[in-house]
Amino acid sequence: MFKRLRGIYHGKKIEEKMLIGWQEWCGFPKLKIPAIKAKIDTGAKTSALHAFAIKPYYRNGVLHVKFSVYPFQGRKDKVIVCRAKVVDQRNVMSSNGHREKRYVISTPLTLGEERWDIELTLSNRDPLQFRMLLGREALRHGRLVIDPRLSQCQTRPRKSTSKRHTA
After folding, report:
1. Which terminus of the chain is more solvent-facing, meaning fewer CB atoms within 10 Å of its CB: N or C?
2. For the domain that residue 129 is a member of, what is the CATH number?
């Protein structure tokens, strides 16, 4: 069962907001990633997904990218190969101050029982603790409240229970 807040939270009224902690399970159904643990990072503008073997290609004159994902931290026995249309290429400053040009894709995110489209940059996050970073652009739709004292408030996504929302 997922948690929702009603009533007053730090002096502001909340109507049916989903409570999330500093880390949550999310999924990407179009990418065939049923579950991946994400760090919620309001300091990061853009969300980032760990990807490797990133190969750009054109289909009908439109840039796409094929990439692989290890969905579970510390494990390399499960690999998911993904394909997506590229919506942009951006220079992104990493947490260590390094600038990197990254492919940006748009895909539905499943968190708890909700689903909405977000943009993801693709980057090799192998040395980092989390395979997924959920940035503030993905959180801006106004349906969430983050309590950094909590962790994994929502259940792992299930394919058939997601409600569709748009940002």
Report:
1. N
2. 2.40.70.10
